[in-house]
Design a protein that fits this description.
The protein is of the alpha/beta class. It has 7 helices and 12 strands. The protein has a 10-stranded mixed beta sheet with strand order 1-2-12-11-10-9-7-8-6-5, with helices on both faces. The protein has a two-stranded antiparallel sheet with strand order 3-4. Strand 1 and strand 2 form a beta hairpin. Helix 4 packs across helix 5. The two termini are about 25 Å apart.
Length: about 375
């Protein structure tokens, strides 16, 4: 099993290839090796032709993007200054992916000064020898797949307040597209200095693709301020249990017959990442994780290492150095057949320096990448 970084249009995708499982049997690529400080280039083995086709279904599937992101997670602490709590404070700004005390792997937390994959990152400034360069500027005639220009099905939305097991009211905005049968759901959790609305650009596309959504405000954020007016007012005990916010959101969608609560995807960013992993570990109906940069504590890392077949998408912006280095370290370790990494490269036109969900509106293809991943997961859910 190899972990490849592939350049498709404006982004770099790390995809596990085993005997050409993507239909392309390889391209010029690089595989991250933990601790090496550089990316080891792989020889080219049949880059796609002039039209850039990546196999029978295309790089991202003939059906295009559907998918959805679910969320759960959060390290369970916000600290007096918006830090990430007991094991890994995110620092005074509460974001930017600092690794904190325990960190991802050691005091610096970020794979050394330039990251585990070297100063230029996994694929270098221009991509590992122009990985998948044959796709060209146009991409493989829309390798990501068309999102569709139609308006999509009618969507019913509502904001519900659900109570966690420790007595806090959590706002969850639920959206359900009209469909003849129950639809899978994506639960979305935000980073420190945002709220549920930071996912709006993705949510509308998920509805168009036939996914229900449940975007939540963590305790002390957004509209979840009935008992606690701000994150700084949370007790250490309340900070340590942000996973209970996610469990409450799961309960909120479980009772609606239009939602198939046996098919849940969690999408998380920043402080919500570690709780998302913890919830996925104990909830069998959570079928995949989409993780934007955020700290994953030891327990969660061990779970992902021991679960190589659990669908996981890691995403980072190449120009946001601290977050990129943290996620690269995870990507170097989580190399199972269902574990993938996408890094958006720095280019002359785009610095790729956005943080977390800010990338949804930063002029990149982050929405398309997530939809592509989730479409693949829905196919697997349907088969089971």
């Amino acid at each position: 099993m190899k972990h490849f970084y592939m350049r498709i249009g404006a982004w770099v995708v790390a995809i596990g290839l085993a005997g050409g499982s993507l239909g392309c049997s390889g391209t010029t690529a690089a595989r991250p090796e933990a601790g090496t400080g550089a990316a080891e280039a792989e020889p080219a083995r049949g880059a796609p032709g002039a039209e850039g086709a990546l196999g029978a279904r295309g790089a991202l599937g003939a059906k295009g993007a559907l998918g959805a992101v679910g969320a759960l997670g959060a390290v369970g602490a916000l600290g007096a200054e918006g830090a990430l709590g007991a094991e890994g404070a995110l620092g005074a700004e509460g974001a930017k992916g600092a690794v904190g005390a325990e960190g991802a792997e050691g005091a610096k937390g970020a794979v050394g000064a330039e990251g585990a994959l070297g100063a230029e990152g996994a694929v270098g400034a221009e991509g590992a020898k122009g990985a998948v360069g044959a796709l060209g500027a146009e991409g493989a005639k829309g390798a990501i797949g068309a999102r569709g220009t139609h308006g999509g099905p009618p969507v019913e939305t509502r904001v519900s307040f659900v109570t966690t097991t420790d007595g806090l009211s959590i706002a969850v905005e639920i959206g359900i597209p009209a469909a003849p049968t129950p639809v899978p759901v994506v639960i979305l959790g935000h980073q420190f200095d945002r709220d549920r609305r930071s996912w709006d650009a993705l949510v509308s596309e998920l509805h168009r693709a036939g996914w229900a959504t449940a975007a939540l405000d963590h305790r002390g954020f957004g509209d979840s301020v009935r008992e606690v007016a701000s994150p700084s007012e949370l007790t250490s005990e309340q900070q340590a249990h942000l996973d209970r916010d996610w469990l409450a959101a799961l309960d909120a969608v479980a009772g609606d017959p239009r939602i198939d609560a046996s098919r849940v995807v969690l999408a998380a960013s920043g402080l919500s990442v570690d709780p998302a992993v913890r919830v996925a570990q104990v909830q069998a109906n959570v079928r995949a994780l989409v993780l934007l940069p955020g700290l994953i504590e030891t327990r969660g890392r061990d779970y992902l290492l021991e679960s190589p077949d659990f669908p996981l998408l890691l995403v980072a912006a190449g120009g946001e150095t601290r977050e990129r280095n943290l996620v690269r370290q995870y990507a170097a370790r989580f190399t199972g057949p269902a574990q993938e990494y996408v890094e958006f490269p720095v280019t002359a036109a785009n610095p790729a320096d956005w943080s977390g969900t800010d990338g949804l509106t930063a002029g990149y293809d982050l929405v398309d990448v997530i939809l592509w991943f989730l479409e693949r997961q829905r196919e697997g859910m349907t088969r089971e």
